[in-house]
Structures are given as C-alpha cells and as structure tokens.
Amino acid sequence: MTAADPFNACGIAAVLTDGGPRIINRKGETLLQPMLFDNGADPFREGLARYVEDRKYGYFDECGKIVIPARYDFALPFEEGKSRGGYDCTFTPVPPFGEHSTYECRRWIELRNPLRENRP
C-alpha cells in the first residue's frame, strides 16, 4: 500500500496500491476498484463515486454499496443530480507522458442520481 485515506463512518477507506486504487473495509478486504482520478480514488460527488469492473464504469455510495452497476464504457461525475454514461468510447492518452487521457463516446445516455430522487 502506498497511500491510504482514513476509514469513514461506514468503515471503508480508499487506498492506493501498486495495483491501483481500491476501496477496502476494516478487515483489509477489497470491496471494489474505484476509478483512478488524479493519482487516487475518484472523489465522491453528490454522495456517489465511480468504480470500474470488467472495464465498465458504475457508481457506488459512501458505504461501498453499488448504486448504479458498471455497464458503461465511461461515466462522468454527477453534477446537479445528473450525469452521463457513455457507450462505444475511445480513449486517447495525452502526450507527452500519457498520464491523462481524452475520451470520445459515440452514444451517451443521461443518468439521474438515485440518491436525490426522493428529495424535494
């Protein structure tokens, strides 16, 4: 492990390992793989963060529960209750080092934050 956030109230933490970012529980068990963002785990926006499973993107909540299953080739963070999930996406590393990438998706669908659906 090269870096770790403190455990939150739900008992999970983001850690950065040689194999990439992970969300772990207090037993050290990996719960899921968050999307890598700026050399760490994707930050929570509106109570959700992105994760990757089998090269697909989805969203999980602050307790590590999967809220939107990983089914998109790429996904944007939530903003004002909305996001977009992309299909048939192409990623291109940005020179000179390839640390960042641009993406282009042929098809997008709008997503709504299910954590906000019951709010007035």
Summarize the structure.
The chain is mainly beta and 120 residues long.
Low-confidence runs? none
User: Into which percentage range does the β-strand content fall?
Assistant: over 45%
The structural domain count equals 1
Structural class of the helices, strands and pairings? mainly beta
* Count of β-strands: 12
- The percent of residues in helical segments reads under 10%
Features:
57% strand; three-stranded antiparallel β-sheet; 120 residues; seven-stranded antiparallel β-sheet; 12 strands
Structural summary, described in words:
The protein is mainly beta and 120 residues long. It has one domain (3-112). It has strands at residues 3-4, 12-17, 20-25, 30-34, 36-37, 40-41, 48-53, 56-61, 66-72, 74-75, 82-93, 101-112. The strands form 3 sheets. A 7-stranded antiparallel sheet has the order 1-2-3-4-7-8-9, with no helix packed on it.
Secondary-structure map:
Blueprint: E1 3-4, E2 12-17, E3 20-25, E4 30-34, E5 36-37, E6 40-41, E7 48-53, E8 56-61, E9 66-72, E10 74-75, E11 82-93, E12 101-112
Antiparallel strand pairs: 1-2, 2-3, 3-4, 4-7, 5-6, 7-8, 8-9, 10-11, 11-12
